[in-house]
């Protein structure tokens, strides 16, 4: 199975990066092919809404790192979105990537499964509700089958998540595919 993991954290050793690392470790052990795209460390530009792409009939006007990601998105069986929770949604770095899906909506729609992994400092029962609604709306629009979430609330530091069950859950999710 081909899996594309897109991370949105600007912290290479942060909490959500640990989830991505553990998911990838499990998926590789299960024999899957992984492509990891760390959005915060790539050259990216925001969608201009210029419609020159015609939602996929022409290339995007930006010539940036999305050109590396797009082929992997088209080939992926599973898309994994990994983010720290920033003001109750995905990070700006991940949001920029998602907005750029617009230029390839037709090629990215349908036939894929998706997973959301997120970390948050807060542990309130409502902390992840806006994020999960956003993700479910995206998955519905893209006609992706949501196959799971790891929502690591109460993990504001690397030490917090290392002491939690969430990294093991991410590993098991990858291993179980």
Commentary on this structure:
With 177 residues, the chain is an alpha/beta fold. It is built from seven helices and five strands; from the N terminus they run E-H-E-H-E-H-H-E-H-E-H-H. Helix 1 links the parallel strand 1 (2-7) and strand 2. The model has no long low-confidence stretch (mean pLDDT 96).
> What share of residues is helical?
25-40%
Strand content: 15-25%
Order of strands, widest sheet: 2-1-3-4-5
End-to-end Cα distance, whole Å, is 8 Å
- Number of helices in the DSSP assignment: 7
User: What class do helices, strands and sheet pairing give?
Assistant: alpha/beta
Instruction: Give a short account of the largest sheet.
Output: 5 strands, parallel
Query: What number is the mean pLDDT?
Result: 96
Low-pLDDT regions: none
Give the C-alpha Rg: 16 Å
Q: Give the beta-strand count.
A: 5
Q: What sort of overall outline do the alpha carbons produce when their principal axes are compared?
A: globular
H/E element sequence: EHEHEHHEHEHH
At a glance:
By secondary structure, the chain is α/β, with parallel strands linked by helices.
């Amino acid at each position: 199975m081909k899996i594309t993991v897109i991370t949105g954290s600007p912290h290479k050793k942060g909490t959500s990066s640990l989830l991505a690392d553990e998911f990838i470790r499990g998926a590789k052990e299960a024999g899957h092919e992984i492509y990891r795209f760390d959005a915060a460390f790539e050259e990216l530009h925001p969608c201009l809404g210029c419609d020159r792409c015609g939602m996929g009939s022409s290339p995007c006007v930006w010539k940036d790192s999305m050109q590396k990601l797009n082929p992997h998105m088209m080939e992926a069986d599973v898309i994994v979105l990994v983010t720290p929770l920033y003001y109750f949604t995905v990070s700006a770095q991940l949001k920029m990537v998602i907005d750029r899906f617009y230029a390839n909506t037709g090629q990215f729609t349908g036939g894929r499964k998706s997973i959301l992994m997120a970390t948050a400092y807060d542990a309130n029962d409502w902390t992840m509700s806006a994020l999960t609604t956003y993700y479910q709306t995206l998955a519905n629009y893209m006609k992706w089958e949501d196959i799971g979430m790891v929502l690591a609330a109460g993990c504001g530091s690397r030490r917090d998540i290392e002491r939690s069950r969430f990294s093991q859950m991410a590993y098991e999710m990858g291993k179980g595919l």
